[in-house]
Structures are given as structure tokens and as C-alpha cells.
Amino acid sequence: MPLRSTLRPLLKKHSGLFFNVLFIVAVLLGVGAFQARNMLPTTAADIPTLRGPLLRGGNYDLADAGNRPVLVYFFAPWCNFCAASSDNLTRLRRLRDEESLEILVVALDWKDHEEVLDYANRHDLDLPVILGDSKIGQDWRVFAFPTYYVLDSNRRITRRDLGYSTQLGLWWRTWLVN
Fold first, then answer.
1. Greater model confidence, 34 or 122
2. What DSSP designation does 40 have?
3. Taking CA 135 as the corner, what is the angle to CA 91 and CA 155, rounded to the nearest 5 degrees?
4. How far apart are CA 101 and CA 166, in angstroms?
5. Is 0.85 surpassed by the pTM of this model?
6. How far is Cα 172 from Cα 80, in angstroms, rounded to an integer?
7. Residues 6+ apart with CB under 8 A from 89
8. For residue range 133-154, what is the model confidence (pLDDT) as tens digits?
């Protein structure tokens, strides 16, 4: 029996499922594009400065980070989606060493130092955490949490997104960055 004649009934039987899956994927892509419309564009020639005090002491300046790719992850300590995805950042650190990817976590919309410290301890964030302010949030166009940008070694935005991301999603977005 030719392959074509055996595939035709199978395709006919499952065409509804195929179109439903295709529709769901299109809706998810459309929602993602709609949510990201106000973020910094991937075509931006220059990114805003990013400097501030670190949670565990010292200061950070993105300009001093060297020539490695960077994942900049903005969160709020009260955000449940941030709490759910923070563990994925820690797992990503185990998959990608510091030489291949810098992971920078920026706290926004926090009340006091203790609130951010409790959050970092609760989620075992052994990553640089900047105590950000509203100016950083405005400059980086952070309107929802979590928001993240992936920068290549030339400090161009290669990926951007907001909302929960799985460990696999974070790994995939940072994997191809040079």
C-alpha cells in the first residue's frame, strides 16, 4: 500500500487537532508580541546604563562587565511569577558558567533592603542582585514582572520577554547568544 494512501486518512482524522494546535501557537505568539510592544526593541542601537548598589555590598556597572553575553532579569520581591521563575535562574547558572553568560538580577519596586535580602535567600539567588530604582525601571521599560533582556557581547538586545519562563526557555533564549 503506498505511503500516500495510508497518510491521507490519518491526516484527515487529525486535521482538527493540527489546526487547533496551530491556532493556540499563533495566539500565544500574538499575545507575546503584544506584551513586548513597549519593551526596548531588539533593534536598539544603544541600551540604557545599568549601575547601582549590589544587595550584598559593592556596586555594579554593566559597562564594566566585559565582553560576555548578559541576561538582565528584572523582578519585584512581591511578584509570584518572579518567585516561580527565580529558581530557573539558579538552575541556568549551573548550566551556563560565568564566562559564557553573566546573569544579572535587578530588584525593582521593593520597600527595603531586608525584603530583597529575604527574597534572595528564600530562592538561593547566588547571583549579583542590583537594588534598582524607578529610574532604572523607566530606562529599561519595565512595566511588568518579571521582565528580562538578553544582551550579546556587543551589548545589543537579542531577546526580550516578560512573564514566567521555564529553565528550558531561559536556556534556549541565552544559548545562541555570542
1. 122
2. P
3. 55
4. 17
5. no
6. 23
7. 71, 73, 103, 105, 125, 127, 170
8. 999 999 999 999 999 999 998 8
